[in-house]
Structure formats: structure tokens, C-alpha cells
Amino acid sequence: MNPASLIPLAEPIPIHWAWFDILLIATFAAHVLFMNALLGSAVIGLAHALRGDGGIIREAGKKLPPLLALTINMGVAPLLFLQVNYGNFDYVSSVLMGGWWLAVIAVLLYSYYGFYAYKFKYDTMGPRLRTLLFGTSLLGLFYVGFMFSNNMTLMLRPEAWTRYFETTAGFLNWSDPALYPRFLHMMLGAGAVGGLFVALLGQVRGKDDMVTTGMWWFTRTTLANLAVGVWFLMALPNEVLTALMGGNLPATLTLVAALLAVGGALYAGFKGQPRQTAGWAVATVFLMACVRHWVRALYLAPWFTIESLPVTNRYGSFYLFVGFLVAGGAIIAYMLKLYFKSRQGRA
Ligand code: HEM
């Protein structure tokens, strides 16, 4: 069977595709930053708690429910933009994963309530139950992340979709050698940014031990991630790898820029400067999100090019979107201003 026959016809889009791609990359980078702070600080807190130091898990634990809510909110936006430009691939992979994919909602609910209970019932729960609840909620986050890695890689491989005709159950992208380093790369990134989040939290709370521990996690996991990044590159299909190694100049330059930003982050990290490191880390995540986008385009090149999408040039809904974005952003900025002012008054 020709897998191309399984790709649905692309729907027309109202405005130029580049708008959706830019919004997709920008909102995805924000999603990843929140997800990293959430998952990474939870791992670090639990690792230290299991060794008898409960300070970080208590401090980070207070931030997990809002971080999870923000991660989900900042995930909805890229999901919508992804479906606009790449829906004919992403809808298919979501359906093929079946129950695995649908279970994400139930697992997220469990993790959310788990972290909520951890924060608000901390004193009334026994330490064992508390740690069990925290650990299983964290496992839930790993499950969700792994499902996203499966979906985002399965959508790129229509040749793997034909398995649908051999099974009645949903399936994952196990046969893809790039899945494993990609997921590990994402999780180590979470460890690094999570460490940075712990360090910044420590700075605000005036806890030097949290700053030192957080920066330790940032630098060590980032160094390990350089090795996993090389594994990830090597696991990519040859055409994608050669494009990133000079075959496609803009893609290669994006990768070089991302690596330079990693260098800046490591330099500031080893000097023990959380704020400067945070600046470099945000730049790194954004540039790596661009590299990841190149990887998607290069994977899909034999099946689809974004330029082939029909455009209707109806800009009305876009102007409405921009209007709400600007007005909504201004209202949120005003609310934050009031919030911080009221906190200053209390201090
Ligand atoms: C809170 C738990 C979550 C975790 C740990 C998580 C983790 C991840 C990871 C690791 C990826 C990258 C996968 C890859 O490319 O290999 C990812 C991508 C993505 N996530 Fe999340 N995610 C979470 C929740 C959500 C939710 C609730 C949504 C949407 C409602 C969402 C939307 C997305 C989208 C759309 C992408 C891909 C964007 C793109 O391909 O450009 N995430 N997530």
C-alpha cells in the first residue's frame, strides 16, 4: 500500500501559513519552558526528598499546581496552530494512537489533583502517602510527555501508519529509533530548566542551598544533554541529518545559533549566575524549538510542503485574533501589576 494514500487532503487556510508557523513555534517554546519548570523541579524535589532533604520538594511543591495549569494553557495554543498547518498529519497520528492518546486527559487530571493535594494537605498527610502521591503524579507527567513525543514523531512517518491494518488497538511509535533520544533530550532539558527554576526560587526566598543545588542540576543535565543531542542527531533519517549538517543552510545556521546559546547558558551557569543563565536558557529553548520545526519540515518534505497549502486570504478572523491578543495581554499585564502592588503593600 502507498502510505501517501493515507494522508488526508489539506484543508484551505485563511491567511499565509507563516503566521501559524511563527505562532506555533513561539507558543510551543512557552509551553516547553513551563513544562520544564514543572517536571524538572518535581524530579529534583523528589530526588532530594528520597535522600532525606525535604526542603526543595516543599518549596517547589507549592508552585506545581499553577505551573501545571500554565503548562496546559500554553499547550492548547500550539495544539491549535499545529492542527491548522499540519492537521492532516497530526490528526491521523492522534487517531492511530487511540486509547494511549485519550488516556492523556485522565492522567493529567490525576497528576493535577495529586499535586494539588500535596500542596494543600501537606500537613495532614503522612510522609509515605505524601511521597507516593507526589511520585505517582510525577509518573503521570512522564506518561503525558512520552505520549506527546510519540504523537509528534508518528505524525512525521506516514510509512509507519500502515500498521493500522494489522492491529485493532491503538499503537505507539516504538519502531522509530529517533523516539528514544528525542524523549530523553526533552526530559534532560526539563531537568536543566527545572534546576534553574529551583535556583531562581532559592534566590527569591534567600535560600543559598537551593541556588547551589539548582545550578548544579542545570549545568550537569545540560552537559549530559549535549551527548544525548548528538545521539538524537545520529538517529534522524539521513536526509534530515545531512540537511542539518550543511545541506540546508538556514536549518544548519539555526542549529549553530542554538548551540551558541547553550554555550552562553553553560558559561553563566558555571559562574553561578541564575538570572543571566535564565536569559540564555530562554534563547536556547526558543532556538531549539526552531530547529525542531526544521526537523518536522524536513521529515515531511517527501509527503508535503507547507507552501502547497491553499490560502483563501480572508484576514477578518486574523485581525479579530490580534485585537483580542493585544487587549487580553494589556488586561493581564494590568492585573499582574495590581497583584504585585498588593503583595508589596503586604510585605
Ligand atoms: C502537563 C504535562 C505535559 C507534559 C509533560 C508535556 C510535554 C511535552 C513534550 C515533552 C513535548 C515535546 C514532544 C516532542 O516533540 O518530542 C510536548 C509537545 C507538545 N505539547 Fe505538551 N506536555 C504536557 C501537556 C500538554 C497539554 C495539556 C497540551 C495541549 C492541550 C500540550 C500541547 C503540546 C503540543 C501541541 C506539543 C507539540 C507542539 C509542536 O509540535 O510544535 N501539552 N509536550
From TrEMBL:
The keyword Transmembrane helix appears for this protein: yes
Transferase recorded as keyword: no
Protein name: Uncharacterized protein
Keywords: Membrane, Transmembrane, Transmembrane helix
TM helices/strands, residue ranges: 22-46, 67-86, 98-117, 129-148, 183-202, 214-237, 249-270, 277-295, 315-336
Source species of the chain: Pseudodesulfovibrio indicus
